[in-house]
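Folding follows sequence. Below is one example:
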Amino acid sequence: MSIAEIKEMSHNERLMTMEALWDALCHEDREPMSPDWHEGVLKDRSSKIASGQATFLSLDESKERIEG
């Protein structure tokens, strides 16, 4: 299915398709593979937390950053 075909679908058709895809993914026997670089990011963040160098944002601060 192409992007053009998806854009031709109604809002409800797109939502129903998305729900069907999500349901299919949730019921697969295998877990999705994370890219190799995820491990490096997680190790870096863990070491920053352990060393006290990590900084954290509140939920409100995070929302503000996202919304601009």
